Amino acid sequence: MNTTVEFKNILVVGIGLIGGSIIRALKDNSFSGDVYGIDNNKASITAAYDLGFIQNKDTNIPKDLDDLLVIFSVPVLSIEEAISQISSILNAKNILYTDTLSVKSTILNSLKELDKNILSKFVLSHPIAGSEQSGFNASSPSLFQDRLSIICPNEENLEKDVSKVEDFWKALGSFTKKLSVNDHDELFGKTSHMPHVIAYALMDSLYQDLGKKTFLYSGGSLEDYTRIASSDPIMWRDIMVSNDKSILSSIESFKNSLDDLSKLIETNNADGLVNYFSSVKRARDKSISGKKG
């Protein structure tokens, strides 16, 4: 590990792709504490227990765990129920909460309706890692290696608690940056949620037009581009509903870009097309170069 996980106990709520990768990474890096994992899918709990990743073989976990980090890795619209269920069964001392969800405003609004003590101890986070595959069997101990994890502190958080959550993600191989909740949702509405909108819509359009011929004569770029259209439908339903304003704004902006390109094609504006493609290429190349630098 790059840093030491400071907690004695870790509970992962939802052991699918992300949650499963967390418990695998802890095992892979010889975490010295105890790890627990619960999920609505009992087969995932059984598999994780049989592989030695978690202490519990069912949904029963000790109620009085000390020095505990609880990580919620559930669909966005399930977070309020999950928080309520966990907080009602735990009587832990020195407890911190975090999450892995892609929309933060929904969680923060839910937390404000709950006990203020939970709000102050809940440090929102979002590891920027994933796959179009889902479920525990798709999880990987290296999923977070050299990947960005976003931390979104709220005004009730103590700096020492924020630092402990940051250090947790660093221990799994991530590097971290901080964003406000609103900035997070607006930014990822454009850079993460919108690409999924495009991939789903493109795949829908292609399949309506071509059916089974869609990939019959395609090159690798089409498979690569539409890969994320194979992502978990429930997760992406929740994200679209929860971050609707940012996503709809991004869709309108994308429509404008499509309209601009359509007009250039419609008018056979060869010079305009070259200028358009060149401008976009420069913007992308510069942005990618800046990220690597």
Structure description:
The chain has 293 residues and is of the alpha/beta class. It has two domains: 9-179, Rossmann fold; 184-268, 6-phosphogluconate dehydrogenase C-terminal fold, CATH 1.10.3660.10. The chain has eleven helices and seven strands. It has a four-stranded parallel β-sheet with strand order 2-1-3-4, with helices on both faces. Strands 5-6-7 form a three-stranded mixed β-sheet, covered by helices on one side. Helix 6 (159-171) links the parallel strand 6 (148-152) and strand 7. The radius of gyration is 21 Å and the shape is elongated. The mean pLDDT is 92.
Q: Could you list some keywords that capture this structure?
A:
293 residues, 2 domains, 6-phosphogluconate dehydrogenase C-terminal fold, Rossmann fold, 11 helices, 52% helix
Question: How do you describe this structure in short?
Answer:
With 293 residues, the protein is of the alpha/beta class. The protein has eleven helices and seven strands.
How many structural domains can be distinguished in the coordinates?
A: 2
**How do the strands of the widest beta sheet line up side by side?**
2-1-3-4
Which CATH architecture of the largest domain?
3-Layer(aba) Sandwich
Mean pLDDT: 92
What is the H-and-E element order? EHEHEHEHHEEHEHHHHH
Counting DSSP H or I runs of 4 or more residues, the number of helices is: 11
Head-to-tail CA distance between termini = 24 Å
Look at the structure and name the CATH superfamily of the largest domain: NAD(P)-binding Rossmann-like Domain
Name of the CATH first level of the largest domain: Alpha Beta
Q: Rg, please?
A: 21 Å
Binned strand content: 5-15%
